[in-house]
Amino acid sequence: METGLLHLHNLLRWVVLLLLLLGLFQAYAKKESIRQSSLWLMIASHTMLVIGLYQTLAGRFGWLSLQLPAGTSVMKDKFYRFFLVEHPVLMITSIVLITIARGKAKALNFRSVTWLLLIALLLILVGIPWPGRADIGRPLFPGA
Questions:
Q1: 126-136 burial string, b = 16+ CB within 10 Å, else e?
Q2: Which of 124 and 61 is assigned the larger pLDDT?
Q3: Nearest 10 degrees: Cα torsion 57, 61, 63, 68
Q4: Is residue 141 part of a domain?
Q5: Is 2 domain-assigned?
Q6: Residue 139 counted as domain residue
Q7: What are phi and psi of 109, to 5 degrees?
Q8: What is the pLDDT of residues 19-31, one digit of tens each?
Q9: 66/72 Cα distance (integer angstroms)
Q10: Of 16, 25, 49, 84, which has the maximum CB count within 10 A?
């Protein structure tokens, strides 16, 4: 189950990124279809949030199963600091912005939606464990 949830979390990353880009385009172009796409973006991001919170708390390297070597703290270890502190904070912040953008999209406040989604996209891009990042990199697609 653990591996399946990790793969689903990884796949949802691409869904969220694509929907974010679509939402940005629609908000910038002032298309009313932003109402529908922002709903799907919010659903995908909240689903990803629930899976991510489970992994952060009870997953293989989660807070509840954390077994650090003696003399090591979470903040001193790059891997644990990223996956238990930095990644969750960046992603929760971006999902809050996506949720606020959804409310603005219902009111067709295109300028606010554009800025909120752009900031959320930047936070997500910074918080993703891209391949090549020392100690924390993950493959682009599950099982790769």
A1: ebbbeeeeeeb
A2: 124
A3: 180
A4: no
A5: no
A6: no
A7: -90, 80
A8: 999 999 999 999 9
A9: 12
A10: 16
